[in-house]
Amino acid sequence: MKLSKVALIGLLFVVARVQAQDALPASNDTPVVQINDINSFDTTLDNTDNATQGEVAAAAAVDAGATEYQAAEIADAIDNEGASAASASIDAGLTNSQAAEVITEVVTASEDIPSQGEVAADAAADVGATDAQVEEIKDAIDSGASAASAALDAGLSDAQTAEVIDQVTTASDEIADPADVAAAAAIESGASSSEALEIATAVDNGDSAAVAATEAGLEPAAVADIVSEVIDSAEKVSDPADVAAAAALDNGATASQAADVAESVDAGSSAAAAAADAGLDTAAVADIVDQVSSSSDNVAAPADVAAAAAIDAGASAEQVADIMTAVDAGESPSDAAADAGLSSAASAAVEAQVEDSADNHAPAADVAAAAAADAGASPEQVADVAASVDAGASPSDAAADAGLSSSAVAAVEDVVDKSPVLPCTTTPTPTARLRGACTSSSFAA
């Protein structure tokens, strides 16, 4: 029987992992992976409906001329380390043109992912919801509600709600990274592969797509197209409440506990605090925090949301550029729009869209806690960091107080610094902040 390329890549991983178990450790502690020679891959990408992003990228890499080893490295980086297809391809040694092919294939595949409302509606119907409940759930999610709150408000049981949450978050796992979406859109707008990779790298490093595309020298019309594509993709990102609830279920929580977690996060709690309050242990809390933080990586940057909203409001290219720059610098979207000459109604619309998007960003406590875990903190330390940031401490102070090393503290601070900042509109002077940390001067730009 002829295996599809995806199946062959899966086989390659099995071979690599089995051999890696018996290999001697490298002197620099890098895992040794030995891969059997596979003479050929099926060069037609089959069965992509259930393929992960990593598998799609690996297949595209082989089509572009990459080796089996490079393909495996790319798939592992995307599926297991959360890398964008752009960074995974570059790190694996692909040329710019090869990386561009991989990015395009990954983004094209992700475009077929239904909206959250559609996924939730199908899941609700599958677990026995009535037609009226299904419609109510879809309408609520399309209006900005989390799948958890929509399902519970529609009268679904905790068990039914848990299934809906699981389906929604599973679908959003395959959303393309904003860096990849921006790069693919740049290519469609006529950018070279090197320009596209430059944009992807900048977005991976924390720039908004709008700023990255502008600095790469693209025309305003191309920048607008890129921003629109990034925003459209980001609309499929799961609400943090849903991600937290799904992660809780993954860690053994009951449907009732998962519902409690979702409701708490919807009400403004960090996922860390919500999980702890629901009675989950520190190891579970740490994993939930990690999943929530990772999910929010696919949320569009505030500057991109503001730019897209300004375009929708009829702003000129120059006005869009001014708004984008101002929001990136920490100004509130409404002030940025007003300063650029937009009407009060248009300025309010820009502000509203940025605030709506902000709901999908991980709370500051979760970002800091996830960064602490990545820096080697124990589950107990992760919980301490989250609790301290929730109480108003800066991420660096929280990490230091939890007993992390100076290098780990610096790593936490670096991650938080690169996280999207959201304009705080509750003070006379706008202060750049992470979601959930509006009052902390530690987050000032």
UniProtKB/TrEMBL annotation:
Organism superkingdom: Eukaryota
Keywords: Signal
Signal peptide: 1-20
Protein's organism: Aphanomyces astaci
UniProt keyword Signal present: yes
Protein name according to UniProt: Methyl-accepting transducer domain-containing protein
